[in-house]
From TrEMBL:
<dbReference type="Pfam" id="PF01266">
    <property type="entry name" value="DAO"/>
</dbReference>
<feature type="domain" description="FAD dependent oxidoreductase">
    <location>
        <begin position="5"/>
        <end position="395"/>
    </location>
</feature>
<dbReference type="InterPro" id="IPR006076">
    <property type="entry name" value="FAD-dep_OxRdtase"/>
</dbReference>
<dbReference type="GO" id="GO:0005737">
    <property type="term" value="C:cytoplasm"/>
</dbReference>
<protein>
    <submittedName>
        <fullName>D-amino-acid dehydrogenase</fullName>
    </submittedName>
</protein>
<dbReference type="InterPro" id="IPR036188">
    <property type="entry name" value="FAD/NAD-bd_sf"/>
</dbReference>
């Protein structure tokens, strides 16, 4: 029997390998790098069943245009004549409707809740191991009237869809954050959300898989595929071919290139974001999103990570300091007495979110090739949705009925 092969050693690929292993399968992982240049280690680590609205939603287009006028804003697309980008933007525009949001909510919510439960089960089974799963909810802070209107509308939508939601005034917020002044008009609190340390999770999971016999091929670039009938039999790399039974493609923002090699269209753009860790003083306690600035804040005891921006780009390494300054400036606006120093270059992390144009992941069988599945396109929620994606892919590979509906996530929806 040929081993199952997972392309991509980000968090989605690792969880896919994990659940295949749980099915008693032999599994190998292939990555183009050392599994370090990806989006899965420096993100905000938030597990967000509250995020039931996909990125493509009404209002995003208008907001995007206004943000593009400032070099420090949270969103940017460098205008360029790139066929793939134009195509992606057109699809994004077409999906930014209320109808799309309403249709997406049930499937996103089911996927998120499944994933959250799988995280809880995972930590119960494996122990903490530095993962620092904190089931303390997520606070969406707002400072302006418009922010309040937007967040309150969202809170009604979330409640109508069965999520737990609390609307907090400034005194309630200060109770959650007793050490630091929080400058906010109010906030929406989602008690079912959680956060963890993404780099420690990635490190632990990789080590666990290696210990359980998963072979990892690093620094191998995919050059093509060997095919026979309707099956892919091997992956050709710059260092030779690797035979595969089931092939799981979890290659993040690069997955569209692999789909192209397999002869079909999987629209995908990288959404670059930045983060940095600072000493947590005075100590922040509550994972929060500073909504007007679109900045995330995730505390880990003596350290805290701030992250944000969405630059539609395919260059993971290039750091735009103006955008990082935009994140940094938000800290003192919301937490005036927090002691923050601008991070040195080597402290700044960047990652490319794999963004599909309708804001929904691609999970399931590929068109044409019966032994190939994709698990990608999770955009701002890849950490949150990784365990559920991995579990579903392992179930599909074994012809088992999936733990939650897959209709919204079909891989060939743009073919
Ligand atoms: C600032 C920021 C904050 C974020 N915060 C959160 C958050 O709080 N919660 C959340 O859920 N999500 C968050 N995200 C999004 C999340 O980080 C991503 O959705 C997730 O990490 C994507 O994981 P992945 O495994 O799909 O892709 P990646 O982590 O990018 O992994 C893909 C892997 O595939 C490999 N690869 C690519 N092409 C090939 C090839 N041809 N051959 C071999 N290997 C290949 C790459 O080397 C890489 O290791 C955030 C993102 C950013 C940028």
């Amino acid at each position: 029997m040929k081993p199952n092969l997972v392309i991509g050693g980000g968090i989605v690929g690792l969880y896919t390998a994990y659940y295949l292993l749980q099915q008693g399968e032999e599994v190998e992982i292939l990555d183009q790098g050392e599994m370090e240049v990806n989006c899965s280690t420096g993100n905000a680590g938030m597990i967000v069943p509250s995020h039931i609205v996909p990125l493509a939603s009404p209002g995003m287009i208008a907001k995007g245009f206004s943000w593009m006028l400032s070099s420090k804003s949270p969103f940017y697309i460098q205008p360029r004549l790139d066929r793939r980008l134009v195509d992606w933007c057109m699809l994004f525009y077409r999906h930014s409707t209320l109808q799309h949001v309403k249709k997406s909510i049930p499937s996103l919510k089911a996927l998120s809740l499944l994933s959250r439960q799988l995280y809880v089960d995972f930590v119960a089974e494996h122990g903490d191991n530095g993962i620092q799963l904190q089931e303390k909810g997520l606070l969406m802070l707002y400072q302006t009237k418009e922010g309040e209107k937007e967040e309150r509308e969202f809170s009604h939508l979330a409640r109508a869809n069965g999520l737990q939601v609390e609307v907090l005034g400034s005194e309630d917020i200060q109770r959650l954050e007793p050490n630091v002044e929080v400058r906010a008009r109010g906030g929406i609190y989602f008690p079912e959300d959680a956060h963890l340390s993404p780099a420690d999770l990635h490190r632990y999971l990789k080590g666990y898989l290696i210990k359980r016999g998963v072979k990892i091929h690093t620094n191998r670039a995919v050059r093509g595929f060997d095919k026979q009938g309707d099956m892919v039999t091997a992956v050709q790399t710059d260092k030779g071919s690797i035979p595969c039974g089931q092939l799981m493609i979890c290659a993040g923002a690069w997955s569209g290139d692999l789909a192209k090699m397999l002869g079909f269209r999987l629209p995908m753009m990288g959404g670059k974001g930045y983060s940095f860790e600072l000493p947590n003083q005075p100590q922040l306690q509550q994972a929060s999103i500073l909504t007007e600035a679109r900045v995330s804040q995730s505390p880990y005891g003596p350290k805290v990570r701030f992250g944000g921006t969405m630059e539609i780009s395919n260059q993971p390494q290039k750091i735009n300091l103006n955008r990082v300054q935009g994140i940094f400036d938000a800290i003192s606006r919301y937490y005036p007495d927090f002691r923050a120093e601008f991070p040195a270059d080597q402290q700044i992390w960047s990652g490319l979110r794999p963004c599909s144009p309708d804001g929904l992941p691609y999970i399931g069988k590929s068109p044409r090739w019966t032994n190939v599945c994709f698990g990608t396109g999770h955009s701002m929620m890849g950490l949150s949705l990784a365990p559920a994606t991995g579990k579903l892919l392992a179930q599909i590979a074994h012809h088992q009925s999936p733990s939650c509906p897959l209709e919204g996530f079909v891989v060939d929806r743009f073919c």
